[in-house]
Specification:
With about 280 residues, this protein is α+β, with helices and mostly antiparallel strands. It folds into 2 domains: about 120 residues, 2-Layer Sandwich (D-amino Acid Aminotransferase, Chain A, domain 1), CATH 3.30.470.10; about 160 residues, D-amino Acid Aminotransferase, subunit A, domain 2 (D-amino Acid Aminotransferase, Chain A, domain 2, Alpha-Beta Barrel), CATH 3.20.10.10. Helices cover about 25% and strands about 30% of the residues. Strands 7, 8, 9, 10, 11, 12, 13, 14 and 15 form a 9-stranded mixed beta sheet that branches. The longest helix has 14 residues. The chain binds pyridoxal-5'-phosphate.
């Protein structure tokens, strides 16, 4: 049975209940995070919490929690839930109102909810054991504030479902100029002639913590060139390798887009080198 946290209380997940008047439920008015943890060691805890604090400030939710408060909560959930391979889900909504009204209510307390769920073991840098992905592509039809990790995920859900209904694991997205943005729940990278390239941070994509760690680790290592720049969909379809990244997937090699092989259709050498560096360095973040 998994132990969750709701508004100050630790309790079995099944017993956690919120009001239907909670603005997270009515409007998707909230911010969330997922922090991965392996055998009790979190990856990217500080940047995950910093991103959540930025998101809360961006949407005007006032929650007086320090990084230490979040650390206490995460560690307690890890202890309560067995310290295996866990995703720690953190969620703050604007709170429960007495009426359904779009404007921000005054004097309501944010709802804080958290639980831990099992995630797969982290990928190992081994081509034979790599989990390779087949994805769909689609025009990105979400809103223009994708840098905010909002709980209002219907746009992402509909895009994920597009790929899922095609038997695919993800949907990579491109904007009206045919430029890569990200995927429905991951950031996206290409590799061309040995250079790792990913779109720059702006309002079209989430500033993924895995993306940040990958870029930082590669730059510190220095053996693989890295660029943050606009990537066209033509570049995606003619890339040598394509990767998608997220906290639970780390670096995931994409071998097929819309049924067409990426490069030679196999997991690439640059993925192997990058995942090896990521596996070795991720707990430093
Ligand atoms: N982009 C979107 C839309 C996401 O939902 C996620 C993760 O949930 C990511 C990118 C990857 O972010 P992170 O590496 O912080 O998990």
């Amino acid at each position: 049975m998994s132990i969750a946290f709701l508004d100050g209380t630790y309790l079995p997940l099944e017993e956690a209940k919120i009001s239907p008047m909670d603005r997270g439920f009515l409007f998707g008015d909230g911010i969330y995070e997922v922090v991965p943890s392996y055998a009790g060691n979190m990856v990217g805890f500080a940047p995950h919490i910093a991103r959540m604090q930025d998101g809360l400030a961006a949407v005007g939710i006032n929650l007086d929690w320090s990084e230490t408060d979040w650390a206490e909560l995460c560690n307690r959930l890890i202890n309560e839930n067995g310290a295996g391979n866990l995703g720690i889900y953190l969620h703050v909504s604007r709170g429960a109102d007495s009426r359904r009204f779009h404007g921000f209510p005054v004097n309501i307390a944010p709802t804080v909810f958290a639980f831990a769920f099992d995630i797969p073991p982290p990928p190992v840098a081994d081509k034979a054991r790599a989990n390779s992905y087949r994805v769909s592509s689609a025009r990105d039809l979400r809103w223009e504030r994708c840098q905010i990790k909002s709980t209002a995920l219907l746009g992402n859900v509909l895009h994920f479902q597009q790929g899922y209904e095609n038997g695919h694991d993800e949907t990579i997205l491109f904007n009206a100029n045919n430029e890569l943005t990200e995927a429905s729940a991951c950031n996206a990278f290409i590799v061309k002639n040995g250079t790792v390239i990913t779109p720059p941070l702006d309002n079209q994509l989430l500033a993924g913590i895995t993306r940040h760690i990958v870029l930082d680790i590669l730059r510190r290592d220095g053996s693989i060139a890295v660029e943050e720049r606009v990537v066209t969909m033509d570049e995606v379809t003619s890339a040598d390798e394509v990767w998608i990244t997220s906290s639970s997937k780390e670096i995931a090699p994409v071998i097929e887009i819309d049924g067409v092989a990426v490069g030679d259709g196999k997991v690439g050498d640059v993925w192997l080198a990058a995942q090896a560096l990521y596996s070795a360095g991720k707990f430093n973040y």
